[in-house]
């Protein structure tokens, strides 16, 4: 049954070889022998290596058992070797055991009986060792091959074990180049390392710890992992894993950005409808109040003691009408008088007015693109938008500065990579209004178009909401970029005349 046991017998005495073989055949039903009695035969057998175990004499005519042992162990380190000799001595035995000999038996009639037992137990031990080695290799393969950065560090934070994935994550040559590197150095923010460490000290196991690591080439990556701390003597060991989750983080941020933009667009939509609806009803009421207050004024005449009171009613109603007009603009409920408008000409004609508005300390620069196409617009409304932006720019530059108004024609293609959710493909005239003023925090940008949102003591919070509504009603949109201390840029996109259907 099975593969027969194959034994290499190195002995130059034919009688001994015969006796050994006979003895072992008694014990092992299936056994084959390769008998070696000269150097040629030995080297051939060594090269071939088709044996499970070696039994060698000590004294051989061309060499000794120690050299046979060394030759075998060098070529086949895990093959067991038994020395069976009548000519050796204790010193030889000790030296041979040091060199990896598995058993040493004195060649005498009574010891022949022991030979089979020795072979059996040597083979058993060899098999156990092999099984351990297999296990070790399996775990080594797993440890090194698993696509997750595994590590073990000592109490000083020094890496004592690491796998290939960790090295790769950090941009190191291989795991060995990580040894005794301090783990603290991986963390882009060393505070994260110390927080992690103190969590481990308290909880012993820390799960899903997220941090930013700095690779050897300087690139920063996001990692996430579990670890546990184990006491070891005076100190401790930490072992665990970290995974590169940079791609995941990026996708998450992108989703968050889109979610925010959608929320923003939705908010403006709802606000616009609500404010527009209220303003519309309110405007009707104001029309009645204004009509009757005019009638009153007419009937009373200036000499009447009630003339002043009626005047005040009319003035308040006028102010209210002005307010609702702006709210209607935001709610996109205005009646537009659309016509082809050359934006460059419109801006040029406004320059005088804008200069007066901005005052001496603010420089006005216009950069108008040549041969710009007309847009379909209500020029009065577009003027209003530019005025509102200019007023805000002036407020943002109390110490003076520069206001630039630039025009260009842009063609937007894909739906996907567009910066704004409100953007859409098509051909647009873009009016870029940028100032060198105080700028805004990012958090603020989500609110500035809301009606009545203002950061100014005297502000109405209507300028931008009106601008927003007007541009929307023209089938365009506004985008804004700003940073504190770095000024602000508004971009108005208006569809090119006659191209709306193509867009
Ligand atoms: N060019 C700008 N630079 C800095 N902040 C601005 C600018 N334009 C608008 N803002 C901010 O947006 C808010 C809303 O503007 P707006 O709707 O015109 O209302 P108001 O000007 O009455 O405050 C302002 O209070 C200000 O905080
Ligand atoms: Mg304003």
Quick recap:
The protein has 503 residues and is of the alpha/beta class. 46% of the residues lie in helices and 23% in strands.
Q: How is the largest sheet built, in terms of strand order? A: 2-1-3-4-5
Fraction of residues in helices?
40-55%
User: pLDDT average, as an integer?
Assistant: 92
* Continuous helix count: 13
| Total number of strands | 17
Strand-pairing-aware structural class: alpha/beta
Strand content: 15-25%
Question: What does this entry look like structurally?
Answer:
This protein is α/β, with parallel strands linked by helices and 503 residues long. It folds into 4 domains: 5-143, Response regulator (Rossmann fold, 3-Layer(aba) Sandwich); 149-244, 2-Layer Sandwich (Beta-Lactamase); 254-330, Signal transduction histidine kinase, dimerisation/phosphotransfer (DHp) domain (Helix Hairpins, Orthogonal Bundle), CATH 1.10.287.130; 339-495, Heat Shock Protein 90, CATH 3.30.565. The protein is 46% helix and 23% strand. It has 13 helices and 17 strands. It has helices at residues 14-27, 39-48, 65-75, 90-98, 109-145, 164-170, 190-203, 246-300, 307-330, 343-358, 379-396, 442-445, 463-473, and strands at 5-10, 31-36, 53-56, 81-85, 103-106, 149-153, 159-162, 205-214, 220-232, 235-244, 339-341, 362-367, 375-377, 401-412, 426-435, 477-482, 488-495. The strands form 4 sheets. It has a 5-stranded parallel β-sheet with strand order 2-1-3-4-5, sandwiched between helices. β8 (205-214) and β9 (220-232) form a beta hairpin. The model has no long low-confidence stretch (mean pLDDT 92). The structure holds adenosine-5'-diphosphate and magnesium ion. The site of adenosine-5'-diphosphate (ADP) has 22 residues, from α11 and α13.
């Amino acid at each position: 049954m099975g593969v027969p046991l194959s034994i290499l017998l190195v002995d130059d005495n034919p009688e001994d070889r015969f006796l050994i073989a006979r003895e072992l055949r008694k014990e092992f039903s299936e056994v084959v022998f390769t008998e070696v009695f000269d150097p040629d035969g030995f080297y051939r057998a060594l090269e071939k290596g088709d044996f499970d175990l070696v039994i060698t004499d000590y004294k051989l005519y061309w060499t000794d058992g120690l050299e046979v042992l060394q030759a075998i162990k060098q070529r086949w380190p895990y093959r067991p070797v038994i020395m069976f000799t009548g000519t050796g001595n204790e010193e030889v035995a000790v030296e041979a055991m040091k060199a990896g000999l598995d058993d040493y038996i004195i060649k005498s009639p009574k010891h022949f009986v022991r030979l089979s037992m020795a072979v059996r137990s040597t083979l058993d031990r060899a098999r156990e060792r092999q099984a351990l080695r297999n296990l070790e290799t399996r775990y080594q393969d797993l440890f090194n091959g698993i696509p997750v950065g595994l590590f073990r560090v000592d109490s000083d934070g020094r890496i004592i074990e690491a796998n290939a994935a960790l090295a790769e994550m950090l941009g190191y040559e291989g795991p060995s180049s990580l040894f005794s590197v301090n783990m603290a150095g991986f963390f882009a923010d060393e505070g994260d390392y110390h927080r992690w460490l103190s969590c481990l000290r308290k909880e012993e196991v820390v799960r899903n710890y997220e941090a930013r690591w700095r690779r050897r080439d300087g690139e920063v990556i996001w990692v996430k992992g579990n670890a546990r701390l184990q006491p070891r003597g005076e100190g401790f060991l930490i072992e665990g894993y970290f995974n590169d989750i940079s791609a995941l983080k990026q996708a998450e941020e992108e989703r968050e950005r889109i979610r925010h933009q959608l929320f923003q667009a939705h908010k403006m939509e709802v606000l616009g409808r609500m404010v527009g609806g209220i303003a519309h009803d309110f405007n009707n009421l104001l029309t009645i109040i204004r009509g009757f207050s005019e009638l009153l004024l007419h009937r009373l005449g200036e000499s009447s003691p009630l003339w002043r009171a009626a005047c005040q009613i009319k003035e308040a109603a006028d102010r209210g009408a002005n307010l609702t007009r702006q709210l209607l603009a935001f709610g996109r409920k205005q009646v537009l008088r659309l016509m082809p408008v050359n934006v460059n000409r419109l801006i040029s004609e406004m320059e005088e007015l804008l200069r007066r508005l901005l005052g001496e300390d603010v420089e006005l620069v216009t950069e108008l693109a040549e041969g710009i196409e007309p847009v379909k617009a209500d020029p009065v409304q577009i003027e209003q938008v530019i005025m509102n932006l200019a007023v805000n720019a002036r407020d943002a530059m109390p110490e003076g500065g520069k206001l630039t108004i630039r025009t260009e024609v842009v063609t937007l293609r894909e739906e996907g990579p567009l910066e704004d959710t409100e953007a859409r493909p098509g051909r647009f005239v873009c009016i870029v209004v940028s100032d060198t003023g105080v700028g805004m925090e990012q958090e603020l940008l989500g609110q500035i178009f809301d009606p009545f949102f203002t950061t100014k003591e005297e502000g109405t919070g209507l300028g931008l909401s009106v601008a927003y509504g007007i541009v929307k009603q023209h089938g365009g949109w506004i985008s804004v970029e700003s940073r504190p201390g770095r000024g602000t840029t508004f971009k108005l996109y208006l569809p090119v005349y006659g191209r709306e259907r193509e867009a």
